Amino acid sequence: MRPSRMRWTHRIVLVGLFTSLLVGFTVLRTPDAVDEPAASLLDKSDEDLTRVEYPSLKSIKWRGRFIRPQDSLESLYGKDWIWVARFNRIDRRHVYPGMTIKEPASMDDIRDYTPLPQEYEPARRHRKYLLLDVTEQWIGAYERGKLKFSMPAATGKAGNETPLGIFRIDARHLTHTSSLYKVPGEEGGQYPMDNALRFHFDDKNVGYWIHARDLPGRPASHGCVGLFDEAMQRRVFSVPKQPVLLDSQKLYAWAAPDSAYGVDDGSHQEIANGPLFEIRGALPRLLPAHR
For residue 192, which phi and psi values (nearest 5 degrees)? Predict the structure, then answer.
C-alpha cells in the first residue's frame, strides 16, 4: 500500500505544479495597451498580414512572404525595406519569425505608394488639412487641397474604434505620456506618446491624440492614431539600433510648428486654429484564417 500512496502523492504535487505554471503563464499573457511583437496565442493566423484587406492593394500585385528566423526587412529587401514597411503598415520591431507580410511583385509599384488622393476638394479652402482613411490605415497632410505627404497609421481596433467626423487639432505635447496605459513589463512606465497632437475629447473626458506608436500592421490602438517613430522605440525598447522611420516627428512639425505657436519647450500647450482633421471610413476587413 505504501508505493500506491507515494504515487498518489506525486500526482498531487505534479497537478499543483502544473496548475501553478498555467496560472503564471496566463498572468504573463494578460493583454496590454501595446501589441507585443509575438504571435497571438488565441488566433495563430492573426500575425498573417495578408489577411488584412486594404482596398487600394487590389491594383497592386503582391504575394505573402513568410518570415524565417534569419530574415529581417533589411536582409530581404535592402534599401527598399522602408517601402515594404510602409506598404504593410508595420515597423521593424513587429517583423519576427513566424509571421507573414505582403511582398510586392515589383518594388516600382510601391515606391511613394499612397492610397490617398493627390488632390482633395474638401481641403482646398484650408491652408492645412488632415485626412485619415481608417479603411486604408493611412493619414495625409494637405495644403490648399494638394497632398503634401502621407504615411501609414494604426487606428483604434474593434471595440475601441477611432471616432469618425471632422475635428480640429487643439493641443500639442512633445513629451506626452498615456495616463491609462503602461509599457509592457513589470517595470514599464507610462506608455510614451511623443509628438502628440490632440483632436478630440469623448463624453468620458478621455483625450484622443495623434502620436508616436508601435505599428503592428493592423488597427491596434485604444482609439488614438499612432504613427511610425523608431526613435521612441529605440529609447523604450532598445530597437532598432538606427532609427529611420520618424513620421510622427514630421507630422508634428507640420501641424503645430514653432513658427505658428512659439518655442516648444516640451510641455502641454493648447493651440488655436490648428489644422482640421477629417476621419472617415470603417475598419479594414480581416479575411478568414487559413485552417
Answer: -70, 140
* pLDDT, tens only, 99-157: 999 999 999 999 999 999 999 999 999 999 999 999 999 999 999 999 999 999 999 99
Tell me the C-alpha distance between 219 and 213, whole Å: 12
Q: Where in the chain is the domain with CATH 2.40.440.10?
A: 121-286
The region, left, alpha or beta by phi > 0 then psi within -120 to 50, assigned to residue 199 is: alpha
CATH class of the domain comprising 121-286: mainly beta
What are the phi and psi torsion angles at 78 (to 5°)? Answer: 60, -135
Q: What is the DSSP string of 24-61?
A: HHHHHT---SS--SS--SS-TTTTBGGGEE-GGGGGS-
Contact status, residue 104 vs residue 62, Cβ threshold 8 Å = yes
- Three-class DSSP category at 107: helix
Q: State residue 118 phi and psi, 5-degree precision.
A: -70, -25
